């Protein structure tokens, strides 16, 4: 039969391996903040184990505070993962929780039973909260939340059983050392070792997933406006066109160009120009439906593809966007700034010869007319011009 000291040593070694692994992973993947908290949480856990070995002479409640605090740090890291950002007041929250625990454990210090009951019930609650964080996130991978739940769920159940036994079982309510409770403590340490490796593995998988998402985003989004970039738009638009053609449903394209944008850059600077581009992207988002594809086509040119939308519906949408944009006054370092947009509109005719590029060409000609006719207006394309199709890619 394994004794407590051996089990503790195995768990401590597993923790060291996990902490070192996660620290290396966090150095390699600096963009994913959560892994740093997860590594810090495990380091906290290791400190708790070390303090446990050193008690006495150190009081046992010190180790209980460190181990319980580890759950709070890991939970915080999982929240940062969910929000994809650093959350404020980490140190303050951790200090307050640490102080509250320190005080509670200090009061309970002479009772191993109550110290364990308190520490285990906090762990059960934190397991539940940590599971919840991942379920609130749409990972797009159903297996990961399930594995996370299994891992934290079993861990929580082991702690729940421990809490209940120390609360209600007459044998455990009398014990004064871990050795006297070897049956449950052995399970606790063995499960803890497996849990640590499972948790570290999950941390690395979640970090990889986040990096993959970031890479996919970088490949498909325009960094300034976060709209679809040209390549991603073309891919999605070709699909939308094929679907529309198959269902014989109308589809319209709006090509937009901010008016006199060069003079905005010249008069207010490039930074303000960028601010205008960002604001216009948000404006488009606010007016588009979820099915619409919005893209920064290049420079100060934007495209919106409207599936299931005919020429008249698209015209009123384009006019809504144009009019409301003319009323937007931006607060820039040089004072208030308002700009306008010109729009070219083209609708599919489901001609077999029609392509995305011929549609764009038609919208571009309409846009050119809008500029020629004084800007801040919407012009419609006349229809499919076969001359525009020469050399078009289907
Ligand atoms: N700030 C900023 N400017 C950009 C960006 N991309 C392109 N531009 C500028 O956008 C301006 C486009 O100017 P033009 O194509 O001459 O057109 P315009 O001044 O908008 O005039 P019209 O289209 O005829 O109304 C150029 O000065 C580009 O340098 C960008 O990412 N940020």
TrEMBL record:
Localization in the cell: Cell inner membrane
Entry's transmembrane regions: 6-28, 35-54, 60-78, 90-108, 143-160, 194-211
Reaction(s) this enzyme catalyzes, per UniProt: 2 GTP = 3',3'-c-di-GMP + 2 diphosphate
GO terms for biological process, alphabetical: cell adhesion involved in single-species biofilm formation; negative regulation of bacterial-type flagellum-dependent cell motility
GO molecular function: diguanylate cyclase activity
Required cofactor names: Mg(2+)
Domain GGDEF: 249-383
Superkingdom in the source lineage: Bacteria
InterPro entries listed in its UniProt record: Diguanylate_Cyclase, GGDEF_dom, Nucleotide_cyclase, Rev_trsase/Diguanyl_cyclase
Protein name (Swiss-Prot/TrEMBL): diguanylate cyclase
Organism: Halopseudomonas phragmitis
């Amino acid at each position: 039969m394994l004794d407590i000291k051996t089990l503790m040593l195995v768990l401590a070694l597993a923790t060291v391996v996990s902490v070192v692994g996660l620290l290396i992973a966090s150095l390699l993947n600096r963009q994913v903040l959560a892994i740093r908290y997860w590594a810090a949480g495990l380091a906290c856990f290791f400190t708790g184990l070390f303090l446990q070995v050193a008690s006495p002479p150190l009081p046992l409640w010190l180790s209980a505070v460190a181990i319980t605090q580890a759950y709070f740090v890991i939970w915080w890291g999982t929240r940062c993962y969910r929000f994809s950002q650093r959350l404020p007041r980490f140190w303050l929250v951790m200090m307050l929780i640490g102080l509250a625990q320190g005080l509670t454990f200090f009061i309970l210090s002479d009772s191993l039973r109550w110290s364990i009951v308190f520490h285990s019930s906090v762990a059960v609650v934190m397991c539940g909260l940590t599971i919840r964080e991942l379920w609130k996130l749409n990972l797009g991978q159903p297996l990961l939340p399930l594995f996370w739940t299994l891992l934290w769920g079993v861990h929580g159940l082991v702690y729940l059983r421990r809490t209940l036994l120390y609360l209600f079982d007459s044998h455990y309510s009398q014990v004064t050392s871990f050795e006297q409770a070897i049956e449950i403590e052995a399970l606790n340490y063995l499960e803890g070792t497996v849990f640590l490796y499972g948790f570290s593995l999950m941390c690395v998988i979640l970090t990889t997933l986040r990096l993959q998402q970031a890479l996919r985003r970088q490949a498909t989004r325009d960094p300034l406006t976060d709209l679809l970039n040209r390549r991603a738009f073309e891919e999605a638009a070709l699909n939308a066109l094929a679907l529309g053609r198959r269902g014989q449903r109308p589809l319209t394209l709006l090509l937009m160009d901010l008016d006199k944008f060069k003079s905005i850059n010249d008069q207010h600077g490039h930074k303000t120009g960028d601010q205008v581009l960002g604001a216009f992207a948000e404006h488009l988002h606010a007016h588009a439906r979820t099915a619409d594809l919005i893209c920064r086509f290049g420079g100060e040119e934007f495209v919106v593809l409207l599936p299931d939308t005919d020429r008249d519906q698209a015209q009123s949408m384009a006019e809504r966007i144009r009019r409301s944009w003319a009323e937007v006054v931006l607060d820039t370092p040089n004072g208030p700034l308002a700009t306008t947009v010109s729009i070219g509109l083209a609708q599919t005719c489901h001609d077999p010869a029609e392509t995305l590029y011929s549609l764009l060409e038609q919208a571009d000609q309409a846009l050119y007319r809008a500029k020629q006719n004084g800007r801040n207006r919407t012009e419609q394309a006349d229809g499919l011009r076969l001359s525009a199709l020469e050399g078009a890619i289907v």
